[in-house]
Amino acid sequence: MDNTAREQITAVRKNGDGDLTSFQTSTGRVLDYSQALNEIEAGSIAGVNVFKAKDGSKRIRGDADGDPSNNLDQLPLF
After folding, report:
1. pLDDT by residue (tens digit) across 12-27?
2. What angle do CA 27, 8, 69 make, to 5 degrees?
């Protein structure tokens, strides 16, 4: 699927520990972490991927593109 046709993550929400808890997409939808995981794995959201952490859990991260300004931790909060 073409990246321009897929939603992108434009803002994030964090908990008190600074962990990402939910995501806002370019269409304004708000996804909790598990919804976002499912949609990223299905290929519906561009610019991010899912990886397996050392503890075995699935985590979301931005695609490595050499631009730190679009890392998920750097996106605006909503």
Report:
1. 999 999 999 999 999 9
2. 125
Q: How many CB atoms lie within 10 A of CB 26?
A: 14
- The pLDDT of residue 9: 97
Q: Which contacts (CB < 8 Å, 24+ apart) does range 44-51 have? A: 44/6, 44/7, 45/6, 45/7, 45/8, 45/9, 46/3, 46/6, 46/7, 46/8, 47/3, 47/8, 47/9, 48/9, 48/72
42 neighbors 35 (Cβ within 8 angstroms): no
Distance separating alpha carbons of residues 72 and 12, to the nearest angstrom = 7
Tokens at 34, concatenated: 């598990």
* pTM reported for the whole predicted model: 0.88
